[in-house]
Amino acid sequence: MSGSLCAATENKVGVVLIHGKWGNPSQFNSLAKSMSSKGYMVLTPLMPWSKVRGYDIDYSSALEIVTGTIQELRKSGSAVIVLAGHSKGANAAIAYAAYGREKIDAVIAIAPGHMPDTVRFHQSIQSSLKKAREMIDSGKGDERALFTHRNNGRYADITMTAAAYFSYYDPEGMASMPLSTSRITQRIPLVWILAGTTDVLYDKGRDYVFDKWPRHPHNKYLVLNSVHREAPDDAKEEILRWIEALPSPDIH
Questions:
Q1: Under 8 Å between Cβ of 204 and 221
Q2: At a CB cut-off of 8 Å and minimum separation 6, what does 188 contact?
Q3: What are the residue boundaries of the structural domains of the chain, listed by start?
Q4: Which end of the chain, N or C, is more open, meaning fewer C-beta atoms within 10 Å of its C-beta?
Q5: Lowest mean pLDDT: which of 4-13, 17-26, 181-190?
Q6: What single string gives the DSSP state of each residue in 145-160?
Q7: Distance CA 22, CA 114 (A)
Q8: Measured between alpha carbons, how far apart are the two ends of the chain, in Å?
Q9: CA 128 vs CA 117, 142, 166, 169, 241: distances in Å
């Protein structure tokens, strides 16, 4: 089957919504409801960067949560898999496109966040990153310590293992969106959604990730008139139209 998703195939679309840093799945209540009303199956896993989990596993293991969620969608009949994330969740969706074990069909990056590869971000957590690297090099990577985390200009000290901390904050690791993008081999359509002109990545422009993404006719770069926290709600109509316009694989 080719062309756009139609009513007969809409219920075969599965969406994984990946929440942001220190957040939880409830941030997607409105977007998830709108997607469900279209017949999409929607799952919103609790990720390790939520407040209640406190980075209890490393980034690679976090992506395995996404793998399990995708497998659950497939077992329930989803043939088209869309990964959508907000802030740190958008970072994870991009990382999954590069490193994940399951095939995906589209990525929605809503107000992407967590940029350890950028100079200002790296400098703000440099002492903690150095501490984690030294612990790992001395064989203490599995030991817990206090490390500084950054979230959209806010900071918090969180106790976790050195290895887990380094996996999230290594400027040359999975959390680097440009590096992840350079390693994507599938032609997966991307919609890159910035909250507005005050978005932390607005000044980075299209070149930071979007222009590096594998070319696809359905790639879209969108700037909302919104703010970071409200972006998932304010983008939902655009997101639904974009999903509906995606080319559908032969799923019959």
A1: no
A2: 97, 104, 105, 106, 107, 214, 216
A3: 10-115+174-244, 118-171
A4: C
A5: 4-13
A6: EEEEEEETTEEEEEEE
A7: 12
A8: 8
A9: 15, 15, 9, 9, 42
**Placement of tokens 């972006």 in the chain:** 231
Contact 240, 34 (CB under 8 A): yes
- For the chain, give the number of residues: 252
Report d(CA 149, CA 204) in Å as an integer: 22
**Average pLDDT of span 74-101:** 97
**Annotation: CATH topology of 10-115+174-244:** Rossmann fold (3.40.50)
State which amino acid sits at residue 160: M
Q: Which tens digits make up the pLDDT trace of 28-48?
A: 999 999 999 999 999 999 999
Find out whether 175 and 95 touch, Cβ atoms under 8 Å: yes
